[in-house]
């Protein structure tokens, strides 16, 4: 966020202004001229921002080998290889052109994945609440090359997607989500890797993950910066001065608590309560064990892998987990439902497992 005051205007007297998320390198001195000398400006650091500066690297492979340790590179390559072994994958970037029908299909899938993920967390999401606004906005921005739609497919289904905002040389990681059924494949990291490779190929110099400190941001970024809240108030007005300084104290206290990781503790407690509620509602555990005897097909019911049944929807993330540890194409796996409704069998080329709910 940047801003500018009109030097010919004088309507700030007696007022207080709160401007969120101003970049720390924003040159405020160029905006406060003599016409607004009565304004007092207080800056409060609120969040860290993270980005990857791509300049100085020949290509993605050069960045990847120099930025990550051998162990980290091995893990990321393993996730990538497992995904590509188990599924037919494809990655597309829509930038400057996209068919409206295809856009709506992708955006609908984006919404569905967000709902699935955030419902699992028991939280609301602004994209869902204002989906019509974002649908129209992002479509026009893609056509104007001020945004890109990045989509990862597995067996022709969308499993991870993001919308990035763009300037001439910078790409901003804005809206992103992935299918939580693929939890072991670390799709968030893979999506960043594919997008960053595209950035190198298309001449972008920075890949910005914006505010907030998350594991994926700290792992991929090589530059940090600060976001500030700016509070502007009329220093000659008692009411404005009191209000402005109250806001300063309020946001300083928030930052103090954030520095002490109180927000992380709060999030962990909320997540724990949510998990306990889910467990209480579902009241079920999953037990997986190896079987040594072959499947007696006449005693079980085969479940098609393209089934939309409740049984398969329940089994799908478990099957994805199993073949992550025992790689083979998903389409070659066989799933059976036992005579007892809570027992299933998953058969692969080198494994045979019983799943009991």
What's the quick description here?
By secondary structure, this protein is α+β, with helices and mostly antiparallel strands.
Radius of gyration: 25 Å
- Quote the average pLDDT: 88
CATH superfamily name of the largest domain? Answer: Gcn5-related N-acetyltransferase (GNAT)
CATH architecture of the largest domain: 3-Layer(aba) Sandwich
Class per helix and strand makeup: alpha+beta
Gap between N and C termini, in Å?
50 Å
DSSP strand (E) fraction?
25-35%
Total E-strand runs: 13
CATH topology of the largest domain: Aminopeptidase
**DSSP summary: helix tally:** 10
Q: Quick one: CATH class of the largest domain? A: Alpha Beta
In N-to-C order, the SSE pattern is EEHHEHHHEEEHEHEHHEEHEEE
Pfam families: Acetyltransf_6 (PF13480)
InterPro entries: Acyl_CoA_acyltransferase, BioF2-like_GNAT_dom
Domain BioF2-like acetyltransferase: 71-217
Protein name: GNAT family N-acetyltransferase
What does this structure look like?
By secondary structure, this protein is α+β, with helices and mostly antiparallel strands. The protein has 3 domains: 123 residues, no CATH class; 135 residues, Aminopeptidase, CATH 3.40.630.30; 70 residues, no CATH class. 40% of the residues lie in helices and 27% in strands. It is built from 10 helices and 13 strands. The strands form 2 sheets. Strands 1-8-2-7-6-5-4-3 form an 8-stranded mixed sheet, with helices on both faces. Strands 9-13-12-11-10 form a 5-stranded antiparallel sheet, covered by helices on one side. A hairpin with a 5-residue loop joins strand 11 and strand 12. The radius of gyration is 25 Å and the shape is elongated.
